[in-house]
Design a protein that fits this description.
The chain has about 110 residues and is mainly β. The chain is built from 1 helix and 11 strands, in the order E-E-E-E-E-E-H-E-E-E-E-E.
Length: about 110
Amino acid sequence: EVELVESGGGLVQPGGSLTLSCLASGFRFNDYAMRWVRQAPGKGLESVSTITWNGDPAYNPELTKDRFTISRDNAKKTLFLQMNDLKPEDTAIYYCNIGDAWGQGTQVTVST
């Protein structure tokens, strides 16, 4: 059974940084691309960033604007999202995703 467990969210002031993690199990993590998706209050799902099995990243430029970095540690079956210069509009629940499998999400709140 595929399981994805996100962590690392929290409350941060504008301009701050957070690193999200997603621990994966139940499938061959090394073989699959992974994705971070977010849902802001009252909005739909937005794809934030993807990464291939061997570490090639892609970003939603409208959302990230060079502020976010996706990475993975295949040995630890963990996906990361480093977020810098956070803005109030980054407030959302962040999910890691593969296919139709989703984690429970981790809340990121950017506020003074």
